[in-house]
UniProtKB/TrEMBL annotation:
<protein>
    <submittedName>
        <fullName>APC family permease</fullName>
    </submittedName>
</protein>
<feature type="transmembrane region" description="Helical">
    <location>
        <begin position="400"/>
        <end position="421"/>
    </location>
</feature>
<keyword id="KW-0472">Membrane</keyword>
<feature type="transmembrane region" description="Helical">
    <location>
        <begin position="238"/>
        <end position="258"/>
    </location>
</feature>
<feature type="transmembrane region" description="Helical">
    <location>
        <begin position="109"/>
        <end position="132"/>
    </location>
</feature>
<feature type="transmembrane region" description="Helical">
    <location>
        <begin position="27"/>
        <end position="48"/>
    </location>
</feature>
<keyword id="KW-0812">Transmembrane</keyword>
<dbReference type="InterPro" id="IPR002293">
    <property type="entry name" value="AA/rel_permease1"/>
</dbReference>
<feature type="transmembrane region" description="Helical">
    <location>
        <begin position="155"/>
        <end position="176"/>
    </location>
</feature>
<feature type="transmembrane region" description="Helical">
    <location>
        <begin position="188"/>
        <end position="208"/>
    </location>
</feature>
<dbReference type="InterPro" id="IPR050367">
    <property type="entry name" value="APC_superfamily"/>
</dbReference>
<feature type="transmembrane region" description="Helical">
    <location>
        <begin position="441"/>
        <end position="461"/>
    </location>
</feature>
<feature type="transmembrane region" description="Helical">
    <location>
        <begin position="54"/>
        <end position="72"/>
    </location>
</feature>
<feature type="transmembrane region" description="Helical">
    <location>
        <begin position="468"/>
        <end position="489"/>
    </location>
</feature>
<keyword id="KW-1003">Cell membrane</keyword>
<feature type="transmembrane region" description="Helical">
    <location>
        <begin position="279"/>
        <end position="301"/>
    </location>
</feature>
<dbReference type="Pfam" id="PF13520">
    <property type="entry name" value="AA_permease_2"/>
</dbReference>
């Protein structure tokens, strides 16, 4: 089918646009909430994988750093687009299937936006734990609305104190970002320093004091339990490898996430140079944090300590960190404040990035038109309200780790599509200037890791709940009716002219597929790996 570009019949586009107000350092601080994401699942991964969990984190962040080189290149092709790698990747896939491109944008948003609910919920939990007794009415009251046992046993939708406080946190974050990207970046720089520095202290001090014990890090064998429930060493059989791949699966959600630094390309003063500097500097910070913190955390506590319920659900992480640096009640209080600020920073990073994905997805014709509204500060407020409303619903769910696992299914789908977008752009848009070019050997490695991600999706998703993979596939497929509404009803089957302006393309260019059948071969191979891995790896 010939793809056309919308003319006036498609309707007006909002005259306001995002403001070019920051440089790469502003984007670095906007992405500074990513290191704090290690706190979301550090206990859950250790409690699933066992001793090799610190290796999982190092492998995962290393893979994410290699992948970021591809994202830095394709971001440079679009100096006037916002929204991150999924938007830039969608422009590569649109030639090969109208519905393939919006899957990339949609899956990226579904992967990022739950950080709002998860982060606000965990922060609310810390506040309740510190200021209220366990038996207080404020902590025990709950209204259960309905059960979601069909998705996961014990999963419910409820309203309680965690929901109320979490909702207030989300509204505060919204208020800060309503003032535009420059104000948000300045605020996050202050909060980011208050978070990253303590994380580095936690990662370095135990190494200097000798509290990191090699016996807590080795031997590298998967977790297993005896008949009476005691922790023991497992073996590298199918079940052992399934647990390890399940750890890599869930770690990717955090360790790859610094690619959000390129969500602000259309807000950079000098996008040609700022884009690569932003993502690579954010990646180096994440390599440091995601290596040191899991290593020292496990090296001090040991696997049995990491299996404590308070570590797995996050409620006792502050106390553990205070113990690791040799602090008493004052240090404990500071750690609680730091963790709350870290979660707040992660929520701010998520709202800034995910709202811009919705905004640019609307401008480019993938998502409903109302999302392309920008206020006079240059903030995409309609997209931000959509983020807020969606996450108030997620905040009512009783199991945040399940929400994280489902969103990560979408994240790995997005990563697969966008890593292949790098070489597709090189073939289909070879003549387009590239301010920064990924070294070809690194691009080849990144494509290899795209297939590794497909294996992780098939093998690791259901480690976190039997229905996780299917739930993720259904969530990804929801974009089909949404895109159909925008494209065929709102735009009459035409794409907005703005979609590929940065590549100087016309409607005729979209019908030229220089890459031939190879994108379809890559897609089919990825789907085959997901299915095969799902059949081979099981507990």
């Amino acid at each position: 089918m010939t793809t056309e570009v919308a003319g006036s019949a498609a309707g007006p586009v909002e005259s306001e646009s995002l403001h070019r107000a920051i440089d790469w350092k502003g984007a670095f601080w906007l992405a500074s909430g990513v290191p704090a994401l290690v706190l979301f699942s550090i206990g859950g991964i250790a409690g699933t994988v066992g001793t090799p969990s610190w290796v999982v984190w190092i492998l995962s962040v290393s893979i994410g750093f290699i992948q970021s080189f591809v994202y830095a290149e394709i971001a440079g092709l679009f100096p006037s687009k916002s929204g991150g790698a999924s938007v830039y990747g969608a422009a590569a896939w649109v030639r090969y299937g109208k519905s393939l491109a919006p899957i990339s944008v949609w899956c990226n948003w579904l992967a990022w936006t739950p950080v709002l609910a998860i982060g606000a919920g965990l922060a609310a939990g810390y506040i309740l734990n510190v200021f209220f007794d366990p038996e207080s009415a404020l902590r025990t009251w709950k209204i259960t609305l309905f059960s979601l046992d069909a998705l996961k046993e014990g999963l419910t939708v409820r309203i309680d104190s965690t929901f109320v406080i979490g909702a207030l946190i989300l509204l505060c974050v919204f208020a800060v970002q309503h003032g535009g990207v420059l104000r948000a970046a300045r605020f996050q720089m202050v909060v980011g320093l208050a978070v990253v520095i303590p994380l580095l202290i936690v990662g370095i001090v135990p190494l200097l004091t000798g509290d990191v014990l090699a016996s807590n890090l080795f031997p590298l064998k998967p977790l297993a339990f005896t008949a009476d429930g005691a922790v023991t060493e497992g073996t590298w059989d199918i079940s052992g490898w399934t647990l390890f791949l399940g750890g890599l699966f869930i770690a990717a959600w955090s360790a790859y996430a610094f690619e959000t630094a390129i969500c602000y390309t259309s807000e950079f003063r000098n996008p040609g140079s700022d884009t690569s500097k932003a993502i690579l500097s954010a990646g180096l910070l994440c390599i440091l944090v995601y290596t040191l913190v899991p290593l020292t955390f496990q090296g001090v506590l040991g696997v049995e300590g990491m299996l404590e319920p308070g570590i797995v659900d996050g409620s006792a992480v502050a106390g553990a960190m205070a113990h690791m640096v040799g602090g008493g009640s004052v240090v404990f209080s500071l750690m609680v404040v730091m963790l709350i600020m870290a979660l707040l920073l992660a929520v701010m990073t998520s709202m800034a990035g995910s709202s811009r994905t919705l905004y640019q997805g609307s401008v480019d014709g993938w998502l409903p038109r109302y999302l392309n509204h920008v206020n006079h500060h240059g903030a995409p407020t309609h997209a931000m309200w959509t983020d807020l409303g969606f996450n108030l619903c997620l905040l009512m769910m009783s199991d945040y780790l399940f929400v994280l696992a489902v969103s990560n299914c979408c994240y790995l789908i997005f990563n697969f599509l966008n890593l292949h977008a790098g070489w597709i752009h090189r073939i289909d848009s070879a003549e387009t200037p590239r301010p920064w070019r990924c070294p070809t050997p690194i691009m080849v490695a990144a494509v290899f890791f795209s297939f590794v991600n497909a294996v992780l999706l098939g093998a690791g998703a259901n480690v976190w709940g039997e229905g996780t993979l299917m739930s993720g596939v259904i969530a990804a497929a929801l974009i089909v009716p949404i895109f159909a509404y925008r494209h065929y009803i709102q735009d009459g089957g035409h794409f907005p002219k703005e979609m590929l302006d940065d590549l100087h393309m016309s409607s005729r260019d979209l019908t030229v597929r220089r890459a031939g059948i190879w994108p379809y071969v890559a897609l089919a191979t990825g789907i085959g790996l997901v299915i095969a891995a799902n059949q081979i790896f099981h507990l």
